[in-house]
Write a structure and sequence with these properties.
Blueprint (H helix, E strand, L loop, with lengths): L7 E6 L4 E6 L9 H16 L5 E5 L4 E3 L16 H9 L5 E5 L2 E3 L1 H8 L2 E4 L4 E3 L13 H9 L1 H10 L3 E2 H7 L4 E2 L4 H15 L14 H5 L3 H10 L6 H15 L2 H16 L2 H16 L17 E4 L3 H12 L4 E4 L3 H20 L5 H10 E4 L10 E4 L5 H14 L5 E4 L6 H6 L7 E6 L8 E6 L5 H13 L3 E6 L6 H18 L3 H11 L5 H8 L1 H11 L4 H8 L25 H13 L9 H21 L6 H12 L8 H8 L1 H13 L10 H8 L15
Parallel strand pairs: 2-3, 3-5, 4-6, 5-7, 6-8, 7-10, 11-12, 11-14, 12-13, 14-15, 15-16, 17-18
Antiparallel strand pairs: 1-2, 8-9, 16-17
Helix pairs in contact: 1-2, 2-3, 4-5, 4-10, 5-9, 5-10, 9-10, 10-11, 12-26, 13-14, 13-15, 19-25, 20-25, 23-24, 25-28, 28-29
The structure holds nicotinamide-adenine-dinucleotide.
């Protein structure tokens, strides 16, 4: 409890010569109204106290400030604003030092940029991540940072949005010193030295020297923009960030700040920013279980065991190793084990060659992973994750063995994509410890982890799985037991329609182009080629279902990239898909064989038939209580399947389009199709009739 207000404290050191203003608004010093007004009062007090010669602003160990309180977004903001606070700092004739430990992000970093000096701990990170919410730093950040570090470096930080480690920030000139040891005492020494030095304290707004290269070369920022905006083409926020930096170069400070604010206000009402802010909140919500009693504690996890060193097992082992958790990988034979571990090492080597990992770090991570062909090693795991072939009998046998060997209370998880976790759990005498941990390929890269809650799964097991997810850097969502769980179940609807589009008149590259234009990184057919068409073929054969075109391609040995041909043709060693006349011939012949009269299909129809059936399935998933929230489905699609974040996920997107439109279009397509799944789902019908959206649905518990 502070003495200015609940979250701000004012004290003095050196017989009143140094004012120390502490920010204490846990967990991360979000700049909510209380913190802002407390800061103004404290800064004014320091200004008006004649004994005070210098001021230090300091946060907590975790954060100087992680930025705006985004729960205030969309509401009228009560003054003072952050701009007011920084303007107040600009009027001070006494040096103000920002002492940064932990994070100084967004508005938090803008506050620090408004101070005359910045010092930081070694582990501190600073940055301006607003672009990730479809915004730009709107409290002078785009004007002050270029003046401190130059326009090019500032554009990279502002458009990239990633946090910058203290050492790099120091090298660039964004901070003045990195202090080791007792941080508070050292920062106080720094402040004391500045007080003693006297003179007019330096303001970022007055600096011009670092802007010189961009002023001398007007095309510099065009080139920077070309490089940085390529991957985010068409998005308004990154472009506005660049425009704001340009304003810093070309306009006087106050004019530049006006421009920044105007750009910020435009972005605030953009649909992209609305979607990105939805995702920000949805991600945090997804990790919560509404029916979890507060008393439930997760179990400690010191060691993991992964069974199977194939594609998934290796990637899952890497997730644990990357998080510093020792992991045992169990295989049936030495050759398979060696192959699996070699692939893990190869993946790390690729990361080194890309510059994202050091040799030393690789050695450290590899040292966390050890392989064995002794199944008895299961006993070592606090968590055991099974990732063997997708066969129920095999999985049941393995879980019976795990049951005999695993520690009492160990978390027992299967990475199955399609099998019934309840049946797997029944192979053990401890079904309360069993759940699904459905990773996505490549498991060490994809952020999504679906946690599958079976009928007997305990809250303790769920809490433990959620906590593991957090530790290994995954975005988690708890889902129910059903075919394909949430993500793949919806994907199946898209896959059916994709094949039908080909039969009715489209070509793979037409479909992929429409899905790419929507914002996905890849279309369904290029994705199929990447994953391998034989995977689905084998599953279809086992289930006795057909997919005329895909089956024909597989029968011709076209399994995708790995055979140099699938829906596309691939040059040796290249992953670039090339349209293939051979495939067109196969498609045309298949349509004819099935007596389907082909027609021209436009991009709009393709897009609707790719997206709306998935949304329809999402409505069924919610009705069956296989997902807790519509926004969980959004998270699953963004982090597991590359749904464009600026479209907010399928259910959010549906709400923006309007559910009655989606219902009408689905009804139209259903009337002209043999795909019965196109019929509007009851919950879609109901919400559309009531004029509501999926966002109006209350959070629910998973049906077990
Ligand atoms: N590949 C994907 O994209 C993906 C995505 C999510 C989930 N999954 C699921 O993950 C699981 C594994 O898939 P994968 O693609 O890694 O398969 P994979 O064929 O690449 O690997 C399976 C591995 O398990 C090993 N194995 C088989 N029986 C074993 C036993 N008794 N003890 C120890 N090891 C044994 C095999 O030797 C093989 O190395 C499956 O259930 C699959 O449905 C796969």
């Amino acid at each position: 409890m502070g003495n200015i207000n609940a979250v701000v404290n004012f004290e003095t050191a050196d017989d009143g010569r140094i004012a120390v203003i502490s920010l204490d608004n846990p967990p991360v010093n979000a700049l909510g109204h209380a913190l802002r007004s407390g800061l103004v009062a404290a800064i004014e007090r320091a200004r008006d106290d004649h004994a005070v010669a210098a001021v230090m602003l300091i946060g907590t160990a975790r954060a100087f400030s992680a930025g705006a309180d985004i729960s205030e977004f969309g509401k009228p903001r009560k003054p003072p604003s952050l701009i007011d606070i920084v303007a107040l700092l600009d009027t001070l004739a006494k040096p103000v030092v920002a002492a940064i430990s932990g994070l100084a992000l967004g508005g938090g970093f803008e506050l620090a940029l408004g101070c005359h000096y910045r010092v930081a701990t070694q582990s501190a990170r600073v940055g301006l991540p607003e672009v990730k919410l479809g915004l730009l730093p709107g409290a002078g950040g785009t004007q002050r940072l270029p003046r401190l570090i130059g326009a090019e470096a500032a554009a990279e930080i502002i458009i990239g949005g990633d946090p910058v480690p203290a050492a790099k920030a120091l090298a660039l000139g964004a901070i003045d010193a990195v202090l080791e040891g007792d941080f508070r005492a050292k920062a106080l020494d720094f402040t004391r030295a500045k007080a003693a030095a006297g003179g007019k304290p330096p303001r970022a707004r007055d600096r011009e020297d670092k802007l010189a290269p961009a002023k001398a070369d007007p095309a510099l920022l065009d080139r920077v923009g070309e490089k940085l905006l390529r991957r985010v083409k068409g998005l308004p926020a990154p472009k506005a960030c660049l425009d704001a930096v340009r304003a810093a170069v070309n306009l006087a400070f106050d004019e530049g700040q006006k421009k920044e604010l105007a750009l910020f206000m435009e972005l605030l009402t953009s649909p992209e920013s609305k979607a990105q802010r939805h995702v920000f909140f949805a991600e945090r919500e997804a990790a919560k279980l509404p029916d979890m009693p507060a008393s439930v504690k997760e179990k400690p996890i010191h060691r993991a065991v992964v069974i199977g060193a194939g594609t998934m097992g290796g990637g899952i082992a890497m997730c644990f190793a990357n998080a510093g958790i020792p992991v045992r990988v169990i295989e049936t034979e030495q050759a398979a084990l060696t192959r699996g571990l070699d692939r893990v090492a190869e993946n790390y080597r690729i990361a080194i060659s890309r510059g994202s990992l050091t040799e030393a770090e690789m050695d450290k991570r590899m040292a966390q992973i050890s392989g064995t062909i002794d199944f008895g090693a299961v006993a070592e795991g606090d968590v055991v994750i099974e990732a063997v072939f997708e066969e129920m009998d095999l999985k049941r046998r393995i879980f019976a063995d795990i049951d005999r060997l695993a520690k009492p209370g160990a978390l027992l998880a299967s990475n199955t994509s399609t099998l019934d976790i309840n049946e797997i759990a029944r192979a053990t005498k401890r079904p309360e410890d069993v759940l699904g941990m459905h990773f996505f390929s490549p498991a060490n890269v994809m952020r999504l982890l679906e946690i599958v809650r079976a009928s007997k799964t305990s809250f303790e097991a769920l809490a433990t799985a959620l906590s593991i997810g957090r530790r290994i850097g995954k975005v988690t969502s708890v889902v129910g037991v059903c075919d394909g769980f949430v993500g793949n179940r919806m994907l199946a609807r898209r896959t059916t329609q994709a094949e039908m589009l080909l039969l009715e008149g489209a070509l793979p590259w037409d479909v992929d182009a429409a899905v790419l234009a929507f914002g996905f990184p890849m279309g369904p057919f290029a994705m199929g080629d990447l994953a391998g068409l034989d995977v689905g073929w084998r599953i279809r054969k086992a289930r006795g279902v057909k997919a005329a075109i895909s089956d024909t391609l597989c029968e011709a040995g076209r399994f995708g990239q790995k055979t140099g041909a699938g829906y596309y043709r691939y040059e040796p060693g290249s992953r670039t898909p090339n349209p293939d006349p051979e495939v067109e011939k196969i498609i045309l012949a298949t349509s004819e064989r099935l007596g389907i009269k082909r027609r021209r299909i436009g991009a709009e129809e393709i897009t609707e038939r790719m997206m709306y059936p998935m949304i329809n399935e999402g409505a069924r998933i919610l009705e069956e209580r296989m997902a807790m929230r519509a926004s969980d489905i959004d998270i699953i699609w963004i982090y597991g399947y590359g749904w464009p974040v600026w479209r907010g996920g399928p259910m959010f997107y549906a709400d923006q389009v309007g559910l009655s439109h989606i219902r009408d279009r689905l009804a139209h397509y259903a009337a002209n199709s043999t795909d019965k799944m196109l019929t509007p789902a009851p919950w879609l019908e109901k919400l559309a009739a009531e004029g509501k959206g999926f966002a109006s649905l209350p959070v629910q518990t998973i049906a077990v």
